[in-house]
């Protein structure tokens, strides 16, 4: 039993449990995918980029702590904070950013 005022984080019972992966993109809105926790994160990356017409090489996926996520790990291995949505289902929130290279150039006039 947790102490008073202490948050209880839901845990997945097995690797076959499904989790909602809620992706929030800068200019592309929000999408939710329901995937097995043992599934490689690369599946989520590919599905999101295909649906939004993005190149997976230029999309950056960040955890709620700001850590960059790669597709080589499963959702279980990513050590993400699992929250419960309004229906009591386990949910992970991920921010999607578009890679920007370069910056302002100095031009001599």
UniProtKB/TrEMBL annotation:
Q: Which InterPro entries does the entry mention?
A: Rad60/SUMO-like_dom, Ubiquitin-like_domsf
Quote the Pfam families the UniProt record gives.
Rad60-SLD
Residues forming the Rad60/SUMO-like domain are: 20-81
Q: What is this protein called?
A: Rad60/SUMO-like domain-containing protein
State the organism named in the record.
Sphaerosporella brunnea
């Amino acid at each position: 039993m947790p102490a008073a005022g202490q948050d209880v984080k839901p845990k997945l019972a097995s690797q076959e449990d499904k989790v909602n992966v809620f992706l929030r993109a800068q200019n592309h809105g929000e999408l939710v995918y329901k995937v097995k926790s043992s599934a490689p994160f690369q599946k989520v990356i590919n599905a999101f980029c295909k649906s939004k017409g993005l190149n997976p090489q230029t999309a950056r996926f960040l955890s709620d702590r700001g850590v960059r996520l790669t597709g080589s790990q499963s959702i279980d291995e990513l050590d993400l904070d699992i929250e419960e949505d309004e229906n009591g289902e386990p949910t992970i929130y991920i921010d999607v950013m578009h890679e920007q290279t370069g910056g302002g150039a100095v031009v001599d006039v």
